[in-house]
TrEMBL record:
Transmembrane residue ranges: 7-27
PANTHER family, sorted: SMALL INTEGRAL MEMBRANE PROTEIN 20
Species this protein is from: Eschrichtius robustus
Signal sequence, start to end: none
Domain of life of the organism encoding this protein: Eukaryota
Pfam families named in the record: MITRAC7_Phoenixin
Name of this chain's protein: Small integral membrane protein 20
One GO term (biological process): mitochondrial respiratory chain complex IV assembly
Keywords annotated in UniProt: Membrane, Transmembrane, Transmembrane helix
GO CC term (a single one): mitochondrial inner membrane
């Protein structure tokens, strides 16, 4: 495995972990606003 490929895989994995962590926190409420707005009105 070349050093450049290894570095790219490490950074790609790190970025995908960050994306997987932020998906339920930030992006899912934005895509399902009606569910979160009705629950917050209670």
């Amino acid at each position: 495995m070349t050093p450049n490929l290894r570095t790219a895989l490490i950074f790609g994995g790190f970025i995908s972990l960050i994306g997987a962590a932020f998906y339920p926190i930030y992006f899912r409420p934005l895509m399902r606003l009606e569910d979160y707005l009705t629950e917050s009105d209670l």
